[in-house]
Design goal:
four-stranded parallel β-sheet; about 950 residues; mainly alpha; Rossmann fold
Length: about 950
């Protein structure tokens, strides 16, 4: 079959062996090998020649009626194209463009074919798709022919649009092939370019005559005799040694190839196969957004051996992509079944199916029919599906975008019709099968982050894998994704199967003409700014700005552009969200409304640990991601306002208490160029956050800049606050003298301004410095005095910190009986206030207490929980200290190998932080372990 397909293509494209020039041959004489006939590139408009040509093709069609595809497709397809192309009179340029694209596609198929084996089913599939595309052109031209009552100028305009659209589709298909294959044959890119140039050079000859005189007409007519010879050769080539009648060649030759990569869908595949094996008559729908893998699942079903066992060769596949008329779909189905010429193609197809014991029919890409905005589209599609589903021997499987299967059919898999995105494991396996597995740990982490950021969306995963073949590492792709978003996945062929943007645009183009379509797109534009989903309270407040927000929401759900979460929130897949953000901005009215809603939510953010912090955090946390995303949009798209700055400050203070994220303040600082209090506040908050993240150098720069600016503005209280934080930052860098100077200066200002609580916090930090200098008595005095003052002012958080520091000193002194109650008390207070970092630090220290007490199981349990929490909180210094504690635990248990690994992990982090004393301590422990016998 592959060799036959190649022969068909070679007859449609002549390539000069000396020049390499490719020419699209539609002249009957040259197609049959009569070299004396003059070359032409499209059909003659002269009636005599055309009628002769059609007579010849009709004879060929009759004589090859028993031959299988693709042989019978040669005369049948050309005959249909000949009849349809006569409408092109007066449109030579448009027809030339279309034939140009056809020539390019044939040339490329031939160039690829030379490097593949005779059994290559994938190549055969691409050839089949080519013939199907030509058939689609014929169907559309027939529809024009049926509209001859339309005024000529209207018909001409529509004809031009059809031909232009088909030219674009031919170009898209060619680009898809070029993406899929790399040509390594004699027919190189230059060869194809030469062929295209030759075709383009014939612009003036596009509608030239096949023959111009009666003598030439007779010469063409003589070729009818040669036709019988050609048909005989075709029958001989096809039949070969087989004794099987040509009419019994199985229909599976028309099936597209099985998906090469198919991961994470085994459960759905098994469910559908089970239905097919159990039920003879069944309707199966495969639903979901574009690019989620619906067609791949359908093809996997078609090629599954368990399906073949019960259905045999009676498996059929048609794609109705782009069709908006059910008559065209019915004709396509009949043509696919080789039932051309019927006045009622759907009835003819049903009669054929009724003659079969079992059949499986896949109708792919049903959405353009089902969601067409023509008045009778849904009713006609429903009738089409229901009539097919009523055939007792037929299992009907349809794929379409959306979440609600068409009515009129009893769907056997209604409960699991919708396809979800892939699991992380399946997405990773898909990437690795196409590209390769990352070799080092950092690239493995980058790959998982990348897959997570595209929501493991199958089309996105496949395209990223293809980009990885071009020597892009996962970290490279992650960087490019964060910079370019869906544009990274849209640089290949402009076809939905190779381009995320095109795939998404198809859904949006179907959406807009629908009732509520305009409002649905507006609602989608708002949802795109809310990565964690539009929650019910926000949805309710926005409802007043829509005439029917529920109708808009239902339409988005039906089109699978949003999903409804467990709490009723509307969520979007990452690629869809970024596409909408780029291409469909909110209306001004909706933007103003959303601003007010989220400024109010920001004002409700808990900004420091307190008794109600945990409860308020639970209520606020679900909107944190949405706030971050939306505020970043406002920061980058408008001038900072007081409300925006206040919202950023509130959300950033909440982030400081939880995950210490600097994202919002980093973005805002770039927009605050004037030396104002807003800029000073942003610098101070950013320095404080970076200090908590162990980014001490950047934190110091931010705090120094904030201190200077506050001094210039005359705000001594805030200036002292910067000095206090600077002192803590310098302490962590082991710059004890500089740290002490800043803290004493800050304390003096606070005392002068009569801020006793803030002065006590400076004393607390001075106590921590004394402890690091091994001045424990002075440290205990400072911490005890500070704690007493802070208690009087009700500063429970700082009181707990003082108690924690006192417990840590006593632990290191070996006074376990005093250390344990201090640490336990601080732990309980931190938990009550919702300070997860402080509570985790105390839990780790208690693990050290248990180790020293010999309670190793309890120690390991506490340290394991602490290490996991530090990982989530992103505290590198605490993470390193916890590894060091594990090293000591394993050392005491004589588990030298594990102890060595833990100390090495701690040392590596300390080296990054620049903590040389801790590095030296770890190296000493490592050396001792290596010296053990």
């Amino acid at each position: 079959m592959y060799a036959q397909s190649m022969s068909v293509l070679e007859k449609m494209l002549e390539i000069d062996p000396t020049t390499g020039v490719a020419q699209l041959v539609l002249d009957p004489a040259r197609r049959l090998g009569l070299t004396e006939a003059r070359p032409t590139y499209i059909l003659s408009t002269k009636r005599a020649a055309n009628e002769c040509f059609k007579f010849l093709l009709q004879g060929m069609a009759n004589m090859t009626d028993g031959a299988p595809w693709p042989w019978k497709a040669i005369p049948q397809t050309l005959l249909q194209l000949t009849n349809a192309i006569e409408l092109a009179k007066g449109q030579p340029q448009k027809v030339e463009e279309l034939t140009d694209k056809i020539a390019q596609r044939i040339a490329f198929l031939l160039s690829v074919a030379q490097g593949h084996t005779d059994s290559n089913t994938e190549m055969n599939t691409y050839i089949e798709v080519f013939f199907a595309d030509v058939q689609r052109i014929i169907i559309r031209l027939r529809m024009i022919e049926s509209a001859l009552s339309v005024k000529a100028f209207v018909l001409a305009d529509y004809f031009e649009k059809v031909i232009s659209g088909e030219s674009n589709k031919m170009q898209d298909a060619l680009e898809g092939l070029q993406t899929r294959f790399t040509v390594h044959t004699a027919y190189t890119a230059e060869t194809i370019a030469l062929g295209v140039a030759a075709i383009q050079s014939t612009a003036g000859q596009t509608l030239a005559a096949v023959v111009e005189t009666r003598t030439e007409v007779k010469a063409v007519a003589v070729t009818v005799g040669a036709t019988q010879v050609m048909v005989t050769e075709i029958h001989a080539a096809v039949a070969g040694p087989s004794t099987k009648p040509l009419s019994q060649i199985p229909a599976r030759a028309k099936l597209p190839a099985r998906p090469i990569v198919f991961k994470g869908r085994d459960d759905r595949l098994n469910e559908i196969v089970g239905i097919i094996r159990k039920l003879v008559t069944a309707g199966i729908a495969v639903m979901g957004p574009g690019g989620v893998g619906k067609t791949s699942l359908a093809l996997a079903v078609l090629h599954d051996s368990r399906v073949i066992e019960v259905v045999g060769d009676h498996r059929f596949f048609i794609s109705v992509e782009g069709m908006i008329d059910i008559d065209a779909a019915s004709t396509l189905l009949a043509n696919h079944l080789d039932l051309e010429g019927s006045s009622d193609p759907l009835s003819s197809s049903i009669s054929y199916f009724q003659s079969l014991p079992r059949a499986l029919l896949v109708v792919d890409n049903l959405e353009t029919l089902w969601f067409s905005n023509t008045p009778s589209a849904r009713a006609d599609t429903q009738n089409f599906l229901s009539r097919l589903a009523e055939v007792p021997s037929v299992t009907l499987l349809v794929t379409l975008r959306g979440t609600v299967p068409p009515s009129g059919v009893q769907w056997s898999n209604a409960e699991f019709a919708k396809l979800a995105t892939l699991s992380l494991d399946a997405a990773r396996d898909t990437f690795i099968q196409i590209a390769k597995a990352p070799s080092d740990v950092a690239e493995k982490v980058a790959l998982d982050l990348l897959l997570g950021e595209v929501d493991c969306f199958p089309l996105a995963v496949t395209l990223l894998s293809t980009l990885a073949l071009l020597q892009n590492s996962p970290s490279d792709l992650l960087r490019r994704w964060r910079k370019s978003r869906t544009k990274l996945l849209s640089s290949q062929a402009k076809h939905r199967t190779f381009n995320v943007d095109v795939s998404i645009r198809v859904s949006l183009d179907l959406l807009q003409p629908m009732t509520h379509g305009v409002e649905a797109l507006q609602l989608l534009a708002i949802c795109a700014h809310l990565p964690e989903g539009m929650r019910r309270p926000v949805y309710g407040k926005l409802a007043e700005h829509f005439s029917d927000v529920d109708g808009a929401r239902d339409l988005l759900v039906e089109f699978a552009l949003v999903t409804v979460g467990a709490e009723g929130e509307l969520k979007m897949l990452s690629p869809i969200r970024y596409f909408v953000l780029e291409n469909h901005p909110m209306t001004d009215a909706h933007l103003i409304s959303l601003q007010q809603i989220y400024f109010d939510i920001a004002a409700s953010a808990p900004q420091r640990p307190a008794d109600d912090f945990t409860l308020r955090s639970t209520q606020f946390a679900p909107e944190y991601g949405n706030l971050t995303s939306f505020l970043l949009h406002l920061i980058n798209s408008e001038e900072p306002s007081e409300k925006l700055v206040d919202a950023v400050h509130a959300v950033s203070e909440y982030a400081y208490c939880t995950m210490a994220s600097p994202t919002l303040r980093e973005a805002l600082l770039l927009r605050l160029t004037a030396q104002t209090a807003w800029r000073a506040q942003c610098l101070k908050g950013l320095g404080r956050t970076r200090s908590k993240r162990d980014e001490y150098s950047d934190a110091t720069d931010n705090l120094q800049a904030a201190r200077i600016l506050y001094a210039q503005l005359g705000d001594r209280f805030q200036e002292a606050g910067c000095r206090s934080i600077l002192g803590s930052c310098m302490r962590m860098q082991y710059s004890f003298d500089a740290a002490e100077a800043e803290l004493r200066a800050a304390r003096n200002i606070f005392i002068e301004l009569d801020h006793e609580s803030e002065a006590a916090q400076c004393l607390q930090r001075l106590g921590d410095i004394c402890h690091l200098r091994y001045e424990d008595d002075q440290a205990i005095d400072n911490l005890t005095s500070a704690r007493d003052t802070l208690k009087r002012h009700g500063e429970r958080l700082f009181v707990a910190q003082c108690t924690q520091s006192l417990g840590q000193i006593r632990l290191e002194q070996g006074n376990l009986s005093a250390a344990e109650p201090d640490l336990q008390s601080a732990l309980s207070e931190f938990e009550a206030l919702g300070d997860q970092l402080g509570a985790t630090q105390c839990a780790q220290s208690l693990g050290d207490v248990r180790r020293r007490q010999g309670d190793y199981d309890s120690a390991e349990s506490l340290l394991t929980a602490a290490l996991e929490a530090f990982t989530k909180l992103g505290s590198r210094s605490d993470f390193a200290y916890c590894h060091r504690s594990f090293g000591l635990l394993y050392r005491d248990q004589d588990r030298a190998r594990k102890a060595l690994a833990s100390f090495e992990s701690a040392r590596d982090i300390y080296e990054v932080l620049g903590w040389q004393a801790e590095v030296a301590n770890c190296n000493s422990q490592i050396q001792n372990l290596r010296n053990l016998p």
